[in-house]
Structure formats: structure tokens, C-alpha cells
Amino acid sequence: MSEKNSRNVGGIGLDTLLMAIAFKVQALPPNSVYQVLIGKRTATTLFFAFSNNLTAYFGLYPKLAKDAWMSYTQNVAEYISVEAIFRQNDQINYMHLLVDDILQKRNGLIIPSHHHKHHLAFKLLLQVLSNIQAENPHYSPIVQDLEVQQLIKDFISMAKSADASQAGLQAITKSLHQQLAKELSAFPDQAALIFLEQFEGAKLPAQTLEQVAENHQISKRAVVITQQALMDQIYQNWVSGHTLGAETQWLQIFAQGVFNQFPIWNQTTQDTLNLINQGWSLQKIADRRRLKLSTITEHIIEITLSFPWIIQPIVVEELNLKDISPLVSQEPDENYESFKARFGEKDYWLYRYWHIVYQKGTHDDRLA
Questions:
Q1: Total Cβ atoms within 10 A of residue 211
Q2: Residue 3 phi/psi, 5° resolution?
Q3: SS3 sequence, the chain?
Q4: CA angle at residue 89 from 85 to 90, to 5 degrees?
């Protein structure tokens, strides 16, 4: 999908968003960045993305051809700034904001299928509560996914059992609208509007992706990125509970329920996590699942990128520490050899763990 820029790169229409990304990452190995953009889900690529603050870019262009990406990297020298890349775009200010700010809130670590379901779950919740508030029992669900429908049905049933009165559901709906307004106030007005136009209420139809793109004179990809980024940040806030008050604690329960039903990683990583939670050692997990130990440690890195505290007991035992606070506060050793000189002959994933928790610092509750 290209912006309104008629220039060509390698014989194809110029995607100014991709060119802006190429400009921003030009100091990094282009092949490694390419693996990030297509979403190659290996421990090495995930760690590279995290270490270079590229998790927002992960899986952004899953169908990108390598030769096309290389053409973009070879043409960045033509530009002196991101603004110059967008100079022929009517929405230059918004696109610049998208690249420098909004995109960074996208959580690319969530597997695409579940990323989509997280989005659908909130869409359907908003529609259902809006129709409850309007006392309109006759409407067609905006979301046809049966798993998502069941999730929202179960959540509404739970809310009703906690407070059987219609007034209770009305209060929940009001608190959701107020909280959503509060969350969106942290974003640029145009981004908030792009986000809201996808939703359907009792008296307000949703707009299609094409309609939103036309309304704002930006590409459909820019619309999707905006909507994903805002949704990811809002879920992040609700999972942590940082922006919620007493009346909206139910949103933390909802968000955690969504992430439990649709984890941010695939099933094989989830199976490893389930066994870790049961106290199994990594070698025992590998033996039980008939997988290489290196495969299990790849799962460990993937889990650590979002929830390092889950792996903390294993790390503390392996490195003979009281807790991981020294790893959080002290800059990692310069290389793996220095790490082994400090801790002995230890697996490489432990060295990566140190890098991850040090980079996260006290923000270990963030999902990326």
C-alpha cells in the first residue's frame, strides 16, 4: 500500500511509511531489520528487535519481499529527514507523528492471529454495552468470530452475576466510555478519531477501513497501525491497572481475560509456560515435550520479553542470586565470555535475560 507519493523505488510505487522506517533504521544491519519487519519469530530476531527498540515494527510487513526492502535501504541516502520523505503527502504532519510517536506504542510481539482477536474483543464489548445502554436487544454482532463472541458472552454473564440489576450494566457502560475518553486524551486528536471510527454503537455505525483511510487521506496501512497502536497501549494500561480507578477495575479483569484466552505467543510457547508454572525444570520440559533444550530456551526468551518476572525463579537458581535486582541495576557484561567469567559456564539465554531485564529496568510490567 503506498501513500500519495508517485515516486518509484526499484520499479514499484513508493511506500513512504516503509521508506521512513528504512531512514530511521539505516544504521542497523538491513537483513536483521528485514527479519523483524516480516515477523520472523526466532529468539535471535525477537532479541534483536527488543535490543534496538524495534518491537513496534515486528511483523509490520509480513509479505515484504527482501529485494524490495533492500531497494528502500539503498535509497535512504536521497533523503535528509523523515519530513522530506513525506513532503508530497497531504498529511505530512500526521504521518511524521505516526512514525515518531504513535507507531512506537504498537506491540508487535503479539502473534498476528491473537492481535486481531484482542482488537475484535474490544470492538464487540463496546457494541454490546452500547446496545445494553440503549436497551436495544435486537442488533447484529459486528464481530463474527465465535471464540470472541463466547468470551464477551461469558464476561457479560459474569458482570450480571456480580450485579444482576440493569443499573449495574449501565454503570459499567458509563465507566467504560469515561475511561476510554480518558485514555484517548493522551493521544493526538486525529489518532483518537481514527481509532474511534472503527467501532459501532447502538446508533452509530462503524466505518470501513477504506472509509477511514479516505476520511483522513492516509493509507489503509497507516489506519491499521494507528488503530493497533492505540488499542495495544490501552490494553497495556488496563492489564497493568495503572490508569484505572475503583469504578473501572473491571477493565483490568476484562483485559487480563482477553490475554489469557488469546496469549501473545503461540501454543507451543504457552505449553512451555504452563509447565514452568508447574515448577518443571527446563531440561525436564524438553524431555517431556521431546524438544531440544535450545527450543525451550527460545520460548524462555520470548516469555521474558513480556513477563521477565515469570522466569525470575529459574534465573535466581541458575545464577545463585538472592533476587534479580543486581541484573536490573547493573549494566550487563560486555560479552558472553565476561558473563561466564562472572557466573561460570552458564547457558547463553541467561546472558540475554540479563540484557532484557536491564533494558526494561523498573518497567517490567510492560508487555514490550
A1: 13
A2: -75, -170
A3: CCCCCCCEECCEECCHHHHHHHHHCCCCCHHHHHHHHHCCCCHHHHHHHHHCCCHHHCCCCCCCCHHHHHHHHHHHHHCCCHHHHCCCCCCHHHHHHHHHHHHHHCCCCCCHHHHHHHHHHHHHHHHHHHHHHCCCCCCCCCCCCHHHHHHHHHHHHHHHHHCCCHHHHHHHHHHHHHHHHHHHCCCCHHHHHHHHCCCCCCCCCCCCHHHHHHHHCCCHHHHHHHHHHHHHHHHHHHHHCCCCCHHHHHHHHHHHHHHHHCCCCCHHHHHHHHHHHCCCCHHHHHHHHCCCHHHHHHHHHHHHHHCHHHHHHHHHHHHCCCCCHHHHHCCCCCCHHHHHHHHCCCCHHHHHHHHHHHHHCCCCCCCC
A4: 150
Q: How far apart are CA 89 and CA 7, in angstroms?
A: 12
Pairwise CA distance, residues 304 & 36, whole Å: 18
**In whole angstroms, what is the distance from residue 147 CA to residue 362 CA?**
35
The number of angstroms, rounded, from the C-alpha of 51 to the middle of its chain's C-alpha atoms is 16
Contacts of 4 by beta carbon, 8 Å cutoff, 6+ apart: 88, 89, 90, 217
CA distance 79 to 81: 6
Other CB atoms within 10 Å distance of the CB of residue 136: 12
The number of angstroms, rounded, from the C-alpha of 200 to the middle of its chain's C-alpha atoms is 23
pLDDT tens for the chain, 368 residues long, are 334 433 454 434 568 899 999 999 999 999 999 999 999 999 999 999 999 999 999 999 999 999 999 999 998 888 888 888 888 666 788 998 999 999 999 999 999 999 999 999 999 999 999 998 888 888 899 999 999 999 999 999 888 876 655 567 888 999 999 999 999 999 999 999 999 999 988 778 889 999 999 999 998 999 999 999 999 999 999 999 999 999 999 999 999 999 999 999 999 999 999 999 999 999 999 999 999 999 999 999 999 999 899 999 999 999 999 999 999 999 999 999 999 999 999 999 999 999 999 998 865 455 54
Are residues 145 and 86 in contact, defined by beta-carbon separation less than 8 angstroms?
no
